[in-house]
Amino acid sequence: MNNIKQLSVFLENRPGHLGQLCRVLAGAGINIVTQMIADTTEFGITRLIIREWREARELLERAGFAVKDTDVLAIEVAHEPGGLVRVLDVAAAAGFNIEYMYAFALACDDANKALVVIRPDRDAAQAAAALAAAGIGVLSAETFYSQKKP
User: Fold this and answer.
1) Would you say domain 4-70 falls under CATH 3.40.50.300?
2) CA torsion 67→73→76→82, rounded to 10°?
3) Which residue of 24, 43, 141, 144 could cross-link 74, Cys pair, CB 3.0 to 4.6 Å?
4) CA 30 – CA 24 distance, rounded (Å)
5) CATH topology of domain 72-145
6) Are 37 and 80 in contact (CB under 8 A)?
7) Of 110, 33, 35, which is closest to residue 77 (Cα–Cα)?
8) Residue 25: which H helix or E strand, with range?
9) Closest by alpha carbon to 5, among 52, 60, 69, 65?
10) What are 15-63's pLDDT values in tens digits?
11) Average pLDDT of the chain?
């Protein structure tokens, strides 16, 4: 499996801190493929998918950010009502939980599909195998990064 790495960066919940993170990456010419932010009253976590994740991690750590990398899966989901239900049923039958996910409608090769990024609570390769065995498209990192922009 060609893993997709996600960087989770812990941020103080204060003005300008996210901008600082983005400036570090922009200054090195590193583009963010996708990003999501979850917050509490005191801190936030931004999750980033970046092609050059190793370089980005090193730069962010040198800039004082706490960074963790994890394996995530990008999967194709039917872009229709109930499309996600099939994925969730396969996950449950295979015995893994989805810790979190984020979805977006990206111009896939198949216009009737959307992409969903999931973080399984077990080994990503095992989860990918279970999903693929059920006929759910699991994208390699190379395929994910080459997707057309909407």
Assistant:
1) no
2) -90
3) 144
4) 9
5) VC0802-like (3.30.2130)
6) no
7) 110
8) helix 17-27
9) 69
10) 888 899 999 999 999 999 888 888 777 788 999 999 999 999 999 999 9
11) 86
